Amino acid sequence: GFLLFEPGLLLLTPLMNSFSVKFRCSAELRFQGQTEFVVNESSRAIVRLVVERVGDPINVTALVMLLYHGSDGLTAGTVSRIHVCVFQSSSNGVTVGTPNTATITILSNDNAFGIISFNSTTLITVEEPKGRNQYVPLTLIREKGTYGTVTVNFEISGGPNPASEDLSPDRGNLTIPPGRAVVVFSVLIQDDKIPEDDEIFTVQLTGVAGGALLNPNRTAVQIKISRNDAPVRFSQPSLAVPESVGIINLTVTRGRTEDGLLIGSDDREVSVAYAIVTGNGAASATLSEDFVDLQATRTVLFPRGVHEKVLQFNIVDDRVPEIAESFQVLLLEDTLLGDAVLVYPSFVQVTIEPNDKPYGVLSISSPPPTQPITINEDTTVRFEGITIVRNGGTHGLVSVNWTITRNSTDRTPVTADLFPAFGTLSFTEGQMTAILPLNITQDSLPEEAEAFLLRLIPSSVLGGAEVDEPMGMVFYIQDSDDVYGRFGFHPNETQSIQSRPDVRFLSLSFLREGVTLGEVRLAFTVLYIPAGPLDPARARDGVLNGTSANSVLFSSGQSKVQIILPIRNDAFLQNGAHFLIQLDSLQVINITPLIPSVSPCFGGAVNISLRITPDIANGEIGFTSNQTVVAVEPEESNTSVIILPLRRDGTDGQAVVFWSVRPVGENRADVTKDDLSQFSGSVVFLTGQSEANISITIMADNVPEINETVLLTLDRTNVENQILKPGFTSREIVILENDDPGGVFEFSPVSKGPWFINEGETVELRVIRQQGQLLNQLVRYTVTPSGNEDFYGATGILEFQPGEREVVVALVAIPDGLPEVRFTV
């Protein structure tokens, strides 16, 4: 840098950090003129700052400091501030005035925010996926600087189809955070099932925000989607041929447009199966009688590069007069294999023309006898379901008159139910079908189904056409306005479960509202569901005398039906269980005419549940507790009684519970009839009774006994519909040990003495056990008062094994050599 001095002025370059100048100037220093500067980075950029003085001159040293505000010193976007300070050799009050600070901003430079581009511009070739997602990754690089956050916009164009049909997204933006030099984003290739040739799309970077620039040489990358989804179709949707034609060819194309141009892929094998569809009516051709399929298999196979295949059928020329007959050959989409899609026409209808009828043969398009035309009066205002067809030739304008009459003995005018009742139907040149529209009379009068007869009048034909069978057809207006009634559970009568001493049953009542015409069968299901969630899947069989499926029959004019469903005598009805009654279906019996009916219908709830209460439920019998009972043998000549309560959950009917007692455990052989009574018995529950007791008597004896355990078990009931409660069918009773089972100990009479012995002599003492000898017992003994001072074995423990009655202990007088007088122990 360099300095430029003028009188009273100083010029500073941005390359200096600090410097000093000596003045003989005024007592106040400050910047003069501009103090805010914005400059580009350049070797020719000079910032001129002027320092002026005010006041009398004195000797002053001024220091100018350059301060940086930025992450890398004087770089892109750096803000620098210059401050003036004063050093003086005297204290004469020299000050720094304002402004004493200047700001210099160096603009961003040298691509500090980066140059954005694709890492490669090589053409990317992909294939359209089949039934899955496929992504193409694209990489953006940020060269030069990576300061700040930048946003890059992109857009995809090309085609010829719009990019949004093949790629997703077709436009958007990407955010690159500070310090990030590489960003990868993906473009989804979509399976659009549209026949396409090669498509090239350009992913173009259209703009960038945040200070960065785009590299103009690498702002675009191309994605090529190879041709795909070759269309498979018949060359024509229909074909009419004379019966004498012989062999016909049906062409199936792969990879051709309707105009015959190639499109889509053809470099792989494609196959599709076909089906032959015929009907049962007079206008339907019959396979093997009217035509023959000449293919060995019903599969069309296109080898690689092949665009056409021909299916051949032989039309059988017979001498039977026939109206036009047709059949269809249908390509099956779910059998299509390879890179192809099925497009219209995927079928061809072949019509074998009638013989020598250039103006056509008119007839009614009659449905199969099992599916007659029916009209719902309640929902139909205008009916357009009757079609008159023109088979054979379609030259010229032709017409035919028609009439509708009742196909019954009813004398009511046809127009009371529909109109018009007659008319003329015309066919224009080339027209093959015509609709006969009818208006349906809307009324609120309940009526049964009515039959009508439509007839074409052969003598009325104009234009040279003929009329052939079927020239008459019966159709129906269905029953209306709930003529057979609305059915449900009777709201004023109780649906209930009845229990009597000799029988149990369900009592159900059903109601028929509205019109009661006709005989109607109501089918319903009765399910027994144990206590718990009311889920039909939990239902159990074997409760009713019959099956769960039932029905009742309403006669004509009958509005109420009650039914009794017996419950099996041996069936167990659990407390809290339910009977679920579901209304399933309604059927009119002997309906005339025999067509599907609109009514009857259900009104209101179609299912109810009846809960089994304790007074109806069968008993589930068990102990109130399953804990062990501890008993103490009573004193001699006395007895004690243990009361074990039973509870029955469900109190309908009488029940007898049989029980028994059996010894268990290691000492079960010691239990006898002298210990308790009784060892078996029974308890009777009367109707409505829920509680009863079993009493066990504990008897006294003088026999020593250790703990004795018995198990009291509920064995069975006298009827099958009374069951034992799982987990509460047994009680353990423990009679505690008694009558000193371990024994009573004393010295044997032969050992009681007195004994006279000298020092060094031995005396043997016998200890005997009286009463019980059932347990292993330890007996401690001591010699007093001198004990171990005068005898060996003066203290010890005697062990009696079970069954052992006597144990000997030996005492030896210690020869201590001390003079002693006789003493007693």
Walk me through this protein's architecture.
By secondary structure, the chain is mainly beta. It has a five-stranded mixed β-sheet, with no helix packed on it. A five-stranded mixed β-sheet has the order 15-17-13-11-19. It is 0% helix and 48% strand. It starts with a strand and ends in a 12-residue tail after the last strand. This is Adhesion G protein-coupled receptor V1.
Quick synopsis:
It is built from one helix and 67 strands. It is mostly beta strands.
Shape: flat
- Strand portion, in percent? over 45%
Question: What is the total tally of β strands?
Answer: 67
What's the end-to-end separation, in Å? 129 Å
Please give the largest β-sheet.
5 strands, mixed
Residue-averaged pLDDT, rounded?
85
Q: Count the helices. How many?
A: 1
* Low-confidence runs: 1-25, 71-76
Strand order in the largest sheet:
3-7-8-10-5
Q: Estimate percent helicity.
A: under 10%
Structural class: mainly beta
Radius of gyration from the alpha-carbon trace, in angstroms: 57 Å
Protein name: Adhesion G protein-coupled receptor V1
InterPro entries: ADGRV1 (IPR026919), CalX-like_sf (IPR038081), Calx_beta (IPR003644)
Keywords: Calcium, Repeat, Signal
Signal peptide: 1-18
